[in-house]
Every structure is written in C-alpha cells, then in structure tokens.
Amino acid sequence: MVYRFVIFSDEVDNFYREIKIDADATFLDFHNAILDSVGYEKNQITSFFLCSEQWEREQEVTLFEIDSSSEYDNLVMDKVELRDLISEEKQRLLYLFDNVSDRNFFIELREIILGVNQEQPICSLSKGNPPVQLQAFDDFSTKETDMVDLDFYGDDDFSADE
C-alpha cells in the first residue's frame, strides 16, 4: 500500500510537493523524503503532528525521544510506521521544520494506493521554491539610544514620584 501526500506552505503561495511513500515506511523515512524534496539540511530538530480537520495539533511524533507532560504518548520517528497512525484519505499532519520560529508544512494524505509497494519514497511532483529553512535573526535589529541624558533608578536625581 502506498500513500500519496501533498505538502504545501502558508508562507509561499506557489510551493507544492507530492510525495509517494510506502505505508510501511517510518516517519523518519517520510521526514527524510520531505527534506530531500525541499533541499533542507537534516541537522534541525523536527516533529510531525497529527491534526484535526481544522489543523489543530494533536499527537506528536518527534525526531528524538523527549520527556513530555503531554496527554499523548511520546512517539519517535524511527520507531513508528506511517500505517500505525495514518489510515484515512484526507488525514492531515503538520511537519514542524523550524522549531525556533514555529514554522511548518501542511500535509494531507490525498490517496491510498492499494496493491502496490514502493521500496523508496519519491517526490512525484514539485512546484515552486520552498520557504527558507531557518529565518535569519538579522530582522531583529537593536537601536542605539543616547543614554547620556537618561535618569535611572539609583541615580542621585531619581525621584519615585516622577
């Protein structure tokens, strides 16, 4: 059985990927297929989230085992097969690729192809450029302030009434 997933982003309008992967593949195999399809480096902490129809995060599948106080079990990508958690067309997932900025891809299972096996996942359709993998921190500039004329607590001229 093969799953055909579509992947899109809310950051880039014309970005679209389609990945076909065997249902027996692990979430780690899917993770690698996604990163290969967009040309991202594989050195970031990522997660999958099973989602509701409104894209609300539910069960998480992490790259590494972590302690969690979540109501869900801690699932790890290399130990969980896709068929263990995904069984219906139109099922939705989020793939968190930038943990710091909380950025993700939206994924939907569009088709389950029965009677077929596939050894390696493939990107069967690729349109547009993906968003950058990590947002630059250059956007957060600091402004210099002339601090000569400012009064601070502890200064002789400080007055709590002001």
Main sheet attributes: strand count, strand direction, barrel closure:
8 strands, mixed
Contiguous helical run count: 2
The 3D shape can be described as globular
Q: Encode the helix/strand succession as letters.
A: EEHEEEHEEE
Helicity range of the residues? under 10%
What is the percentage of strand-forming residues? 25-35%
The termini sit apart by: 73 Å
Care to describe what's here?
β1 (2-8) and β2 (16-22) form a beta hairpin. The protein has helices spanning 27-38, 82-85, and strands spanning 2-8, 16-22, 47-51, 57-62, 75-76, 92-98, 103-113, 122-127. The chain is built from two helices and eight strands, in the order ββαβββαβββ. 10% of the residues lie in helices and 31% in strands. The termini are far apart. The chain has 162 residues and is mostly beta strands. The radius of gyration is 22 Å and the shape is globular. The longest helix has 12 residues, at 27-38. The model is unreliable at 139-149 (pLDDT under 50). The protein has an eight-stranded mixed β-sheet with strand order 5-4-3-6-7-1-2-8, with helices on one face.
Summary of the model, kept short:
Helices cover 10% and strands 31% of the residues. The protein has two helices and eight strands.
Helices and strands, with pairings:
Layout: E1 2-8, E2 16-22, H1 27-38, E3 47-51, E4 57-62, E5 75-76, H2 82-85, E6 92-98, E7 103-113, E8 122-127
Parallel strand pairs: 4-5
Antiparallel strand pairs: 1-2, 1-7, 2-8, 3-4, 3-6, 6-7
List the keywords:
mainly beta, 162 residues, eight-stranded mixed sheet, single chain, 8 strands, 10% helix
